[in-house]
Write a structure and sequence with these properties.
globular; binds adenosine-5'-triphosphate; alpha/beta; 17 helices; Rossmann fold; 31% helix; six-stranded mixed beta sheet; binds magnesium ion
Length: 504
């Protein structure tokens, strides 16, 4: 295999059902360089990288490595040329071990599955990059950050010179993201090439040497990162300024919507991960839970929304006891849920967009006529969602999996918010959204608050929490370290509370 020194994509075009996902795109990168790829949801970033990785064939255009034209007809071929990709949504097989997953598609594999050898190589690579990976664990037991690392190790073990990372940090904690960046810098120093897709402008500025901006399938800007800042990048991307801080109006909130009383919940390993948490949220209030993920937030949310058993304690909505009721019953009591792993739990990817637009709501009167579903009403509703939530899709008659990652997120958010739930539980609602969509979503949450809704916001993004929430709880090892008002002077200590070294 020849080491990649330069790689060029020349005049790449790709059309999907009338949508120009890529138009005449030229892109180049050389060894020791980290290139950022930026653009709104649906701009064509993933498509372009899927072409480079051999998953899609371009309608026209070609790829050159070290000045020579290369056919890239399949991922096997592109891996052979030294290209590795970590996808936007993980593709690991959940009930296989780490080693088995890496062995799948391992190019240098002997005829028989050389278990010991693969495990040793994994450990060796992990050590080199300071990754803590146990090859014998099954994938479902791992956090998103751990899965991310396995995807990277998998690509590197296949000898990737060029590593493509499609939104690698949207599911990582900020600490994990910093670790990842350290590794990327190390790879860069060793002469690797990296292409990084991210919606987080700070990250692009921090780690990339150059940035290319896509809009509606075309390149609309290119710059050395040292010559740009957050504002100029946002302008390049969406053609207008972005408000990075939105103001919230003060609101009286006295009417209780949810009361959580001394709740204990177990995790997957059957130990208590929520250990006696109590709080309440009122109408016209956004209540935030801050904390490093993995401290019980997910299990708490699942218990509230009926996806996990409550071991002891009580949860009421508008005075009705919903403890251990079914998810559907809780939903019908007025609890909307935007789950953390939306693509896995929020949609049925093979169904049409209009089906997903009413998932869980199909039994509502407004969507049925006698014994049948009223497809004209459903389609109208889906169309309205697309317009209201600015979901970019060719039409409502496509399979949902064909939407770009961010647009799937917007569809789910739109579906849950448009129901005007008494309590909206939103876990990391801006994961995967571009800056414009993030701004829009935050305004929607504030609108819900103004219209009398209660919102539970779980996020690791402190900026988001500070901006939106009226009160903030900090969760550590299954307990609240304190609940602060958003203007409390103690807010400065939130970092200490998140690390468990301060309890109020
Ligand atoms: N397999 C497909 N079939 C039909 N349309 C597709 C397919 N893949 C992508 N598209 C369309 O191509 C356009 C570009 O999508 P792409 O996934 O490349 O966007 P993206 O820039 O990665 O966005 P995001 O930030 O949301 O991930 C979108 O309009 C999308 O709906
Ligand atoms: Mg994408």
């Amino acid at each position: 295999m020849v080491k990649i020194k330069t790689l060029e994509m020349i005049k790449i075009n790709k059309l999907f059902q009338g949508v120009k996902a890529n138009s005449d795109i030229n892109l180049s990168i050389r060894e020791g360089e980290i290139l950022g790829l930026l653009g709104e949801n649906g701009a064509g970033k993933t498509t372009l990288m899927n072409i480079l990785y051999g998953l899609y064939r371009p309608d026209s255009g070609h790829i050159r490595i070290n000045g020579k034209d290369i056919e890239m007809n399949s991922p096997v071929e592109s891996r052979r040329h030294g290209i590795g990709m970590v996808h936007q949504h993980f593709m690991l097989v959940q009930n296989h071990t780490v080693a088995e997953n890496i062995a799948l598609g391992y190019e240098n594999s002997a005829a028989l599955y050389p278990q010991r050898k693969i495990k040793e190589t994994i450990v060796e690579f992990s050590r080199q990059f300071n990754f803590d990976i146990d090859p014998t664990k099954e994938v479902w037991q791992l956090s998103a950050g751990e899965q991310q690392r396995i995807e990277i190790i998998k690509a590197l073990m296949n000898g990737a010179d060029l590593l493509i990372l499609d939104e690698p940090t949207s599911v990582l904690t900020s600490h994990e993201a910093q670790d990842l960046f350290k590794n990327l810098r190390e790879l860069k120093n060793q002469g690797h090439l990296v292409i990084l897709i991210s919606h987080k402008l700070e990250e692009i500025l921090d780690i990339c040497d150059r940035v290319t901006v896509l809009q509606k399938g075309r390149i609309v800007g290119e710059a050395q990162t040292k010559d740009v800042d957050k504002n100029s990048l946002a302008r390049m991307m969406i053609g207008r300024d972005i408000i990075f801080r939105i103001e919230k109006e003060p609101m009286e909130s006295t009417q209780k919507v949810i009361e959580v009383d001394n709740v204990i919940v177990q995790g997957d390993k059957e130990i208590d991960v929520v250990r006696g948490v109590s709080f309440e949220i009122y109408r016209n209030e956004i209540f935030g839970i801050a904390g490093v993920s993995g401290n019980g937030q997910r299990e708490l949310v699942e218990a509230i929304t009926g996806l996990r058993r409550v071991e002891s304690g009580k949860i009421t909505i508008d005075g009705t006891d919903i403890t251990n009721e079914s998810a559907r019953c809780i939903y019908n009591c007025g609890v909307g849920h935007v789950p953390e792993e939306r693509i896995k739990f929020g949609i049925a990817p093979g169904l049409y967009l209009y089906d997903n637009a009413i998932l869980k709501q199909h039994h509502r009167k407004k969507f049925s006529s006698k014994f049948f579903l009223a497809y004209n009403k459903i389609k109208q509703h889906a169309q309205n969602l697309l317009t209201d939530f600015k979901v970019l899709a060719p039409s409502i008659n496509v399979q949902t999996k064909n939407l770009s990652g961010g647009n799937i997120q917007k569809l789910i958010l739109g579906r849950e918010i448009s129901e005007n739930p008494a309590l909206l539980v939103a876990s990391h609602p801006t994961y995967g959204l571009d800056v414009g969509a993030t701004e829009y979503l935050r305004k929607q949450l504030l609108r819900r608050r103004r219209d009398g809704g209660a919102v539970l916001l779980v996020s690791e993004d402190l900026e988001e929490i500070f901006e939106l929430c009226d009160r903030i709880a900090v969760m550590f090892r299954g307990e609240f370290m304190g609940v602060l008002k958003s203007d409390a002077p103690e807010l400065k200590d939130i970092g200490l509370m998140m690390a468990g070294s301060l309890q109020l």
